[in-house]
Amino acid sequence: MILIMSLIGFFSGAIMFSYWLARLKGINLKEIREGNPGAFNLGYAAGLTYGILGASLDFLKGYLPAYYFAKVIGLDDSRIIFLALSPILGHAFSPFLKFKGGKALATTFGVWSALTKFQISFFYAVILGILKYIERKINKNKPSLPEIDALLDLTGFGIIGIILFVLQYSFILQQFWFYNLVLLIFKRIRDIHTLLSLVFKSEQS
Asked: GO:BP terms for this protein (predicted)?
């Protein structure tokens, strides 16, 4: 039963809505910015309407299976950790894109919305909004680099871990946060490496 549910979650997440919406517009997201086939690049390449549509679909493919899993086995069962990760893993390693999926941010939002009744996803959205506002002010509203976006994503999600601990969310959800964080970091390794290289070069010059 758990294996079947995890496969449902994985293949739900593996449906690359944003990538396919872009293809309908004649756009290959693999050729946009850093090549991420997700909703942000869809909005960047095809416009805000398409970006919102892609983000909504990517959100739902995380929300719907996670909501179902939580109803079936509950949040006090440690198996929810693996099940909740499955749609995020599906998006990050989609077999429909040769296991080179997206960065899984919108799908992560969907899963956390289902598990915490939108509480943690709301906190995360507010934190990212604040961080993004500060970044835009510092850069004088210039378009942000993918590497900076990755740093903000990870910083915001790191703060979420503190919130989970301070507000005494269950240890199971805190464990899920940790594995989710590891996955988000893994999908942004190249961005982090590029950012560190730029920092070191600027210090040496």
From this structure: phospholipid biosynthetic process
DSSP, collapsed to helix, strand or coil, labels residue 107 as helix
Of 79, 87, 86, nearest in space to 59 by CA: 87
Number of structural domains in the chain = 1
Tokens 């996803």 appear where?
121
Q: What's the rounded Cα separation, in Å, for the pair 58 and 51?
A: 10
Q: How many Cβ atoms from other residues are within 10 Å of residue 123's Cβ?
A: 18
Measured CA angle at 201 (ends 200, 205), to 5 deg: 120
Q: Domain of residue 115: give its range.
A: 2-204
Give percent helix, percent strand, percent coil of the chain, each to the nearest 5.
80, 0, 20
- Tens of pLDDT, residue by residue over 126-171, are 999 999 999 999 887 777 788 899 999 999 999 999 999 999 999 9
| Contact call for residues 87 and 13 (beta carbons, < 8 A) | yes
From residue 185, give the alpha-carbon distance in Å to each of 18, 94, 103, 193.
21, 17, 9, 11
5-20: pLDDT as tens digits: 999 999 999 999 999 9
Tokens of residue 49, six digits: 């309407």
Tokens 């893994």 belong to residue: 186
CA 188 remoteness from chain centre: 10
Stated pTM of the model: 0.93
